[in-house]
Design brief:
This protein is α+β, with helices and mostly antiparallel strands and 442 residues long. It is built from 11 helices and 14 strands. The strands form 4 sheets. Strands 9, 10, 11, 12, 13 and 14 form a 6-stranded antiparallel beta sheet that branches. A 4-stranded antiparallel beta sheet has the order 6-7-5-8. Strands 1-2 form a two-stranded antiparallel ribbon. Bound molecules: protoporphyrin IX containing FE.
């Protein structure tokens, strides 16, 4: 049963009843609402001194089944859980990734309240709701609306919001966040790699947000509103839009293609492979530090792909570079897409990408890949500024480091440039009523 919200969204009555009542402007330790700081921040940003926030029941958009790759897709994923959503979640079609820095004078309290506000807002946004009950159209006409409004009339579109904490946050000058002694020892800036051409404009960050959705506007709406909530406490450092997934995390998901035209994600770790996830993706109960148990580590690499050069290569040379056939995705050693490659013999080149990245050559190491294609316009020579926004989740950053070192002789290196980079600790999921990162301050 649904009722219409003023913004025209369909509201199931069952969800109105179960929606938590908002305590506005609360700064208590839990996560009852966006703090006064979060709300006043954007009012100040727009030159308005105060902001009115509606209280009481809120509305939710009903879950609708969409279709992608031919099978039913959940429209809503819970924000709370043992692990953060957006890692094993069936990969959505669009990405808006954002890296933030804390403001120079921000304190431990600012960091805590920001993570609380972000978690609260994310728990609403992932239900297809505005960031607050008064949202985009129900607040005072004298103040800027709490929500920017561009998601009015849209569903949750499978939105997931995943938060991460960068090494620089723990190493802040004077330990102003009081968390230096809680830094996971494995969380440090990545070493330099052969062929790196990193640009500071797409590298690093104290915090990150990965927003994935099946509608690009929903992902952008999430990052835009979360960045507005951060006003005065953190500011956007760099961000990236991705338009086509380059991996799969679910067996019934078709393997997508990257901008070289190859199937990507064939040998990925899938959501139903509990053993592989425990071994390669989730930080374990016995790993250090204890507050990271159930979390993971995210590596982002902005990898430019010289597509015009690639497009001039003979098909046989393209296949040799990857080690798989362009059409079927099958390894060059034979079989179908899902056949395991065979590396003895000469079918697969010693420096083919799939050989160098394969677990047999890397002490059994695996990672969960979740990247997206990007095109950021073109350069002065009329070439596309295109590539892969590589995202991988692993139990320890060391897994990525080992693979990336191994890829130093990759035949593909001639056609790609790593131009951006970041690493973040991804805390476990928030418990209901709590927030992502709570364990760090416990
Ligand atoms: C633009 C850059 C890249 C492109 C175009 C690319 C493309 C591909 C393709 C087409 C495959 C084969 C299909 C599959 O199993 O998914 C693959 C596999 C793989 N790639 Fe990449 N890749 C890139 C960068 C990287 C990086 C930076 C890493 C890690 C450091 C990496 C790690 C892997 C792994 C682990 C596999 C699976 C190997 C296996 O178990 O068979 N890739 N990649």
């Amino acid at each position: 049963m649904t009722a219409s919200e003023p913004g025209g969204r369909q509201v199931p009555h069952s969800e109105i009843a179960s929606e938590p009542t908002e305590a506005t402007a609360s700064e208590s330790a839990g996560r009852p609402g966006i703090s006064r700081r979060g709300l006043i921040g954007w009012a100040l940003g727009s030159g308005v001194a105060g902001i009115a926030v509606g209280a009481g029941g809120a509305a939710a958009v009903g879950a609708t089944a969409g279709a992608s790759g031919g099978s039913a897709v959940a429209d809503e994923y819970a924000f709370e859980g043992v692990h953060q959503a957006g890692i094993t979640t069936r990969v959505q079609d669009h990405l808006h990734f954002a890296s933030f820095d804390m403001m120079p004078r921000a304190s431990r309290e600012d960091l805590m309240s920001l993570l609380q506000d972000w978690s609260y807002a994310a728990s609403r946004l992932t239900k297809g709701l505005d960031v607050s009950a008064s949202g985009a159209v129900d607040g005072s006409p004298e103040a800027p609306p709490d929500d920017t409004g561009e998601a009015q009339g849209l569903t949750a579109a499978g939105l997931t919001i995943t938060f991460g904490l960068g090494p620089s946050l723990f190493l802040a000058e004077g330990d102003r966040f009081g968390i230096a002694d809680r830094r996971p020892s494995v969380l440090a800036d990545l070493p330099g790699f052969v062929g790196d051409a990193l640009d500071a404009a797409y590298t690093g960050g104290d915090l990150c947000i990965q927003a994935c959705a099946d509608d690009p506007q929903v992902a952008v709406h999430a990052v835009r509103n979360l960045s507005r909530i951060a006003f005065g406490r953190a500011r956007l450092r760099w961000s990236q839009l991705g338009f086509g997934r380059t991996s799969r995390t679910s067996a019934d998901q078709q393997t997508p293609r990257n901008l070289f035209g190859y199937k990507d994600g064939t040998a990925n770790i899938l959501a139903d492979d509990a053993k592989a996830l425990a071994e390669h993706v989730w930080v374990g109960e016995k790993d250090e530090p204890a507050w990271m148990a159930g979390g993971s580590y995210l590596v982002a690499r902005k990898i430019a792909m010289l597509v015009e050069t690639w497009d001039r290569l003979r098909l046989a040379e393209q296949d040799r570079t990857i080690g798989r056939a362009k059409g079927s995705g099958a390894p060059l050693s034979g079989g179908g897409e899902m056949t395991e490659p065979v590396f003895h013999g000469h079918a697969i080149d010693e420096n083919a990408h799939v050989r160098l990245a394969h677990p047999t050559l890397n002490d059994g190491i695996r990672i969960l890949r979740r990247g997206y294609n990007y095109v950021d316009g073109n350069n002065d020579l009329g070439r596309l500024d295109a590539g892969l926004f590589f995202l991988s989740y692993q139990r320890s950053p060391e897994q990525f480091v080992t693979l990336q070192k191994r890829l130093s002789t990759d035949l593909m290196s001639e056609y790609i440039r790593h131009i951006g980079s970041g690493i973040w600790a991804i805390p476990p999921g928030a418990e209901k009523g709590s927030y992502v990162g709570a364990g760090l301050f416990a």
